[in-house]
Amino acid sequence: MVSCGSHKKKSFVYLQDMTPGLGYPSEIAAQTTVRPGDKLSITVTCKNPELAAPFNASTVTMGSDGSVRSVDLDNTYRVDPNGYIDFPVLGEIRVEDKTLAQVRELIKEKIEEGNYIKNPIVKCELLNLRYTVLGAVGSNGNFSTDEGRITLLEAIANAGDITANGRIDNVAVIREEDGGRTLYTHDLKSHELFDSPCFYLQQNDIVYVEPKRNKDTRTEDLSWKVITVALSAISTVTAVLWYTTK
User: How far apart are the C-alpha atoms of 200 and 145, rounded to whole Å?
Assistant: First the structure.
């Protein structure tokens, strides 16, 4: 049974230093910023729905009886390569590098400044979050989620988890920020992961799981082979002794 076993199917214990029942608050909140190519859902509401209608995507149709009705469309906006969206009534609005909360506040201010609506309620959501997972995981590639946010652990799970050849203590996230790229490294055995700015991924983040060095892998394989041979030899000798004594 030992000789037929495979050590390749290896599972890792994440967050090993956590104590059951003890709270681990995170000071890092998810602050996803808008990038070109993002798809946003934006709706405007107020106490008087008729006043908010021009700010929501809709089309007006006329029936055969002369009645006019408004049909709501999908209130989604694609951010163009220059970082703008074309919003009803307000026109082009630059949203690149702004958080969703900042986009909501910006649209609300523009509506109030134009005296269109007093105290409008603006809802803004990110409909597509794209990221890449590479290295020692089950499936390398580009991924996306419609949830608007995703944690580093969820992203790794979606990619088939870390393989036996991966280093759980050196998982990198490469992030575009401030006009360049920043590398963050993480030890997934530690609860300090919760305090990382990359605990929640952002648009176009690249997750890289470093493989173990070849020397380490060969040593691990050799150790397993030695153990397997030794146990097989012991079982064989035991069987022979048992047979001869009988």
Answer: 13
- DSSP sequence for 203-236: TTEEEEEEEPPHHHHHHHHHHHHHHHHHHHHHHH
| CA dist., res. 90 & res. 112, Å (int) | 11
Render 173-196 in DSSP notation, one character per residue. Answer: EEEEETTEEEEEEE-TTSGGGGGS
Q: Measure Cα distances from 194 to 23, 27, 35, 154, 236 in Å.
A: 12, 8, 24, 13, 50
Residue-wise pLDDT for 180-191, tens only, equals 899 999 999 999
137 phi, psi to nearest 5 deg: -130, 170
DSSP state of 133: E
Give dist(CA 104, CA 43) in Å, integer. Answer: 10
For the four alpha carbons of 236, 240, 245 and 246, in that order, the dihedral sign comes to positive
Contact 204, 35 (CB under 8 A): yes
The label of the residue with tokens 């990382």 reads: 196
Backbone angles phi, psi at 98, to 5 degrees: -100, 150
Contacts of 118 (CB under 8 A, 6+ apart): 46, 112
- What's the whole-model pTM score? 0.64
Query: Mind listing the pLDDT tens digit for each residue in 108-147?
Result: 999 999 999 999 999 998 888 889 999 999 999 999 887 7
Give the Cα-Cα-Cα angle 72, 78, 84 (nearest 5 degrees): 115
| Beta bridge mates, 135 | 209
